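Please fill in the sequence for the structure shown.

STRUCTURE ENCODING:
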């Protein structure tokens, strides 16, 4: 019988000549991958471990299984090179032979930049390391195959017709033996067998995520020599261009989030508890779908999705930029993703790529997508394919129409455009392509602990984020044809190249903070919309000191009526309208205790009248060379606080922007190391870690000049920014 042993403890880790002993999972970028500057260590480190013969499990053949090593791993056993695996998010195995009394495993792990392993350019940190478990597997000579792209050699395909489900189970073996398969109390013999289940208990999303188990035994001369088993679910689904997602014959709108997995200090080296905490938070919010971006996630997490009834979009990290030498890698990563995750009922689509035309579309992008699309279909005929398209990609682009369904990433109201543009944009797509299911794969905006009574696009306040999500939610509610919508992102995550919002190295679009400790107001906007539990939440609790005499209070609730009390006095009750958002105006005098009541629930907040704006609420950019009050903003004239798009809408503005643009490009081209050891400055014109192209310039229209400058990661001096401001101060605003 198969025996497995997790061997995570006591590995000798060497980085740049320094050796320490540590336990897996581990990354060497826990700190430098999260602190900004795009300067985290990307190179080769080694992990070594000695295994005595008695450390091995029972068995005649032995395999080593790696659940995740980023990005490339070369495995040596007793000095002999066994394999190199390229791809940091999928599992792989190697066979160990000639076991001695003492054996040495050495793994060279490499996350250095190259041009053939995805991802290379993306808005997240590529943490190097053996960041998931390592397992030793012992089997007899006759066993279920361990050489099928990291899969567990059992593939279950349920299919429902009327009241009967036929459940096909295929198994793959090495060696001899008779295969006995067990499902739902029945037994069949063979490597490709089909069970019939009458009135099956369906896997029905969050309502009832029922799971069956299939077990296969390999029997040789009456002895069970190996056994594998898997959970599976019986469900049918359809993605309809008009009705959206249909689960088991019923319309089931997919509304949820994307998830990045990393955490402070430990990066992607997560424990089961971390995965579970993430899932608990997503469930609390009331989501029923997760886009597991931008790579293959841990098996534990897909299992949790099955168990909690989440509908999942799974994808490979074919992202941001097509690499001519990376075609093979997209193929192996897609093959591994599908082989390793085929049995999960939660997964309904395979994502081929994300924002791949950011650096331009063309024949190779189209070819690569056609190849991946047929590969996915040939490996799995039960699931459609999808892509996440970058905002500026034209809807007629050939590549947009290759996958079975499609979604767009749009940041109207954040990077560029206004927040009310979602509805019209999707209506236009839907009208032109009425047979193509369209969804929103990403939308979102950043929020930190900054506050304001006058939220504005790009201000990084909790209030603007909440307002933004209210506005997008309203547009989604009115468009049931959207097959799935995914907020970017459930959690703040690290992207070492970023310099935004006052904390470098982070993307703050999460509904929940990086440490999972604080749920931002927008989390509750979703909870009030999606959860079936009663919800009552007063927003802006961290915004206590307020200057204005009358202030607004936003309350989120899915209950019929909300009543608000200030210092014990009712200021009125409001009935729930179409949306679960309630807006109150109250007088701001002295100290106020605000109490909201709805049904059985209450929530409380405190505000205080002050004369001067509390500067603790205003964004302070880390390492910023310039303070907001140093920027001259004469009325009627532009300043660096205006968006590039607004400035460019006048002739004078265009001329001014040409001068400013030259200053910017000049500084970025000159982006060579200024001194030895000055790691912050890297070669090549780049913007938040991405190299320039025209599409990115379009995106930049939504940025204020100041923000565009700050996103280059402190490449401009105060004097330079003030010079830009002086240029703009001479240009009259459009009337
Ligand atoms: C992109 C991308 C994400 C990124 C996000 C953002 O669309 O797909 O990986 O983090 O936008 O800018 O926040």
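FILLED IN BY: designer on duty
SEQUENCE:
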């Amino acid at each position: 019988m198969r025996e497995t042993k997790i061997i995570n403890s006591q590995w000798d880790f060497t980085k740049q000549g320094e050796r320490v002993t540590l336990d897996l999972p581990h990354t060497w970028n826990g700190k430098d991958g999260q602190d900004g500057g795009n300067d985290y260590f990307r190179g080769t480190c080694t992990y070594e471990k000695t295994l005595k013969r008695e450390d091995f499990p029972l068995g005649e053949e032995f395999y080593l299984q790696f659940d995740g090593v980023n990005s490339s791993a070369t495995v040596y056993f007793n000095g002999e090179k066994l394999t190199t695996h390229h791809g940091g998010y999928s599992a792989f195995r190697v066979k160990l032979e000639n076991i001695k009394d003492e054996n040495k495993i050495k793994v060279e792990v490499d996350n250095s930049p190259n041009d053939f392993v995805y991802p290379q350019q993306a808005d997240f940190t590529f943490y190097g390391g053996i960041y998931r478990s390592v397992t030793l597997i012992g089997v007899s000579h006759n066993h279920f195959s361990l050489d099928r792209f990291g899969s567990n050699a059992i593939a279950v395909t349920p299919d429902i017709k009327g009241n009967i489900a036929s459940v096909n189970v295929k198994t793959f073996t090495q060696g001899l033996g008779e295969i006995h398969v067990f499902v739902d109390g029945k037994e069949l013999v063979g490597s490709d067998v089909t069970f019939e289940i009458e009135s099956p208990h369906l896997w029905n999303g969050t309502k009832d995520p029922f799971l069956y188990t299939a077990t296969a035994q390999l029997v040789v001369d009456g002895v069970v020599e190996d056994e594998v088993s898997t959970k599976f679910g019986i469900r049918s689904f359809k993605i309809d261009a008009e009705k959206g997602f249909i689960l088991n014959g019923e319309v089931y709108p997919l509304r949820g989030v994307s998830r990045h997995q990393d955490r402070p200090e430990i990066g992607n080296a997560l424990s089961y508890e971390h995965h579970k905490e993430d899932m608990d938070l997503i469930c609390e919010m009331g989501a029923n779908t997760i886009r597991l971006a931008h790579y293959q996630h841990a098996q534990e997490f897909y299992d949790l999705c099955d168990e909690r009834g989440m509908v999942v979009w799974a994808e490979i990290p074919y992202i941001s930029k097509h690499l001519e030498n990376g075609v093979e890698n997209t193929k192996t990563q897609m093959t591994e993703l599908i082989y390793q995750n085929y049995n999960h009922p939660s997964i309904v689509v395979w994502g081929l790529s994300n924002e791949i035309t950011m650096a331009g579309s063309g024949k190779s992008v189209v070819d690569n997508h056609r190849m991946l699309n047929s590969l996915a279909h040939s490996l799995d005929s039960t699931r459609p394919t999808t892509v996440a398209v970058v905002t500026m990609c034209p809807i007629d682009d050939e590549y947009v129409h290759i996958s079975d369904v499609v979604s767009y990433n749009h940041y109207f109201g954040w990077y560029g455009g206004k927040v009310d543009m979602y509805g019209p944009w999707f209506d236009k797509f839907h009208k032109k392509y009425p047979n193509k299911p369209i969804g929103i794969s990403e939308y979102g905006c950043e929020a930190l602990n900054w506050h304001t009574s006058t939220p504005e696009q790009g201000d990084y306040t909790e209030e603007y984020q909440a307002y933004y999500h209210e506005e997008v939610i309203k547009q989604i509610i009115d468009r049931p044809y959207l097959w799935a919508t995914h907020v970017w992102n459930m959690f703040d995550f690290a992207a070492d190249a970023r310099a935004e919002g006052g904390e470098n190295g982070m993307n703050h679009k999460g509904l929940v903070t990086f440490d999972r400790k604080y749920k931002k107001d927008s989390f509750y906007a979703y909870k009030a919309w999606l959860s079936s539990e009663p919800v009552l939440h007063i927003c802006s609790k961290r915004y206590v000191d307020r200057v204005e005499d009358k202030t607004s209070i936003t309350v989120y609730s899915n209950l019929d009526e909300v009543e608000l009390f200030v210092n014990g006095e009712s200021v009125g009750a409001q009935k729930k309208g179409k949306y679960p958002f309630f807006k109150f105006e109250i007088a701001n005098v002295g100290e106020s205790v605000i109490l909201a009541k709805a049904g059985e629930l209450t929530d409380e907040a405190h505000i205080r009248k002050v004369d001067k704006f509390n500067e603790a609420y205003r964004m302070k950019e880390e390492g910023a060379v310039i303070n907001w009050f140093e920027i001259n903003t004469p009325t009627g004239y532009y300043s660096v606080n205006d968006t590039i798009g607004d400035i460019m809408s006048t002739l004078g503005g265009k001329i001014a922007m040409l001068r400013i643009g030259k200053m910017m490009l000049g500084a970025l081209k000159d982006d060579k190391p200024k001194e030895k050891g000055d790691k912050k400055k890297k070669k090549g014109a780049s913007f938040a870690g991405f190299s320039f192209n025209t599409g990115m310039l379009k995106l930049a229209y939504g940025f204020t000049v100041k923000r565009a400058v700050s996103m280059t990661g402190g490449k401009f001096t105060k004097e330079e920014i003030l010079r830009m401001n002086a240029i703009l101060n001479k240009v009259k605003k459009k009337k």
